[in-house]
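As a warm-up, study this chain.
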Amino acid sequence: AIIPAHNEQEFIAGCIASVFNCGHPPGLLEILVVDHSSTDATKALASRAGATVLQLKGGRIGAVRNTGLRAARGEFVAFVDGDCLVPATWLRSAILILESDSRIGAVGGPCLSPNTGSWVERSLAPCYVRPGIVKPAKTLATSSFIARATLLKEIGRFDESLISGEDDDISNRIRQRGLALAWASDCHIIHNGYPRTLWEVVRKEIWHGSSHIEVRSGLDLTLALAMLFLFTSAGVLISLP
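Now compare it with the structure written out below.
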């Protein structure tokens, strides 16, 4: 498992602990934390939690992910962000799907909000998904992204020039090779990094949309729904006495 992390001291130990319990034999599980210029205790806490820590200064998110990919020794690589938790079904389910059908290039799952999240977090994402659902996907978020290491290396790894949207880009390149993407509810993650206030929503969508125009075709539904939510919520607040 590859975990990019920047100043994640609040969440990194929990993330690593959840990966150790994700349904893969411990002796065959390698956890690589790529510490991206953290200025807090992320590196020390990740090492204490049992992960191998790689360090990268500078570069964009694609470079962070590629640093982990180059160092990974396993047949499968699984990406999860440092502010997330994975369920016990996460890795086992993904590998079973990949091994059952050679036409599937990558597997991922939905991002859920924490049960204890703010009303903004719970509005942006559900906190429950029904287990056992597998369906085709057009793109997969790299907050939960599992694939064969050889495939990602063959298609040129992650695009290091993108500020964000590297997950859409690599999803598109996998599909261009004639391979499918699978969305599996058992591969969901709980994302602790959702915006907790309306202002955080604005800042995150401005950043997140900065490279999506380059890699998406058609309407960015996630961005459109987020902005619709923002403007609707703001209108309700303004109209309140």
